[in-house]
């Protein structure tokens, strides 16, 4: 049954009818000429922002997700929590944590070691089972 279905799909007329019924949308191939000649003209230049520099410096432009809301204001550094400033700090990799003595690791590094080691063991077990 599957072979007869595939053979029927190969019929070009049938495919054209399905495309017309389904409303499949295609995109035009670049056959037309661009206005302005060969190179990138004025239309390719980036648009100048209509927002003033003062507004950009005092608000987080584009952070508003509500229809009726406004962009949030930028606060002073002291107004933000301390953990925020450490989000991008480099943390040791699993290989570095394995070289260190586990008894002397701080709690955060020990917690990270357990998480990364468990993840590595799961990946290894999955790859072994996939080969069998």
UniProtKB/TrEMBL annotation:
Keywords annotated in UniProt: Mitochondrion, Ribonucleoprotein, Ribosomal protein, Transit peptide
Gene Ontology MF term list: structural constituent of ribosome
Pfam families xrefs: Ribosomal_L37 (PF08561)
Region Disordered: start-end pairs: 30-51
A GO CC term attached to the entry: mitochondrial large ribosomal subunit
Subcellular location: Mitochondrion
Family per record: Belongs to the mitochondrion-specific ribosomal protein mL54 family.
Protein name as it appears in the record: Large ribosomal subunit protein mL54
Organism from which the protein derives: Nicotiana tabacum
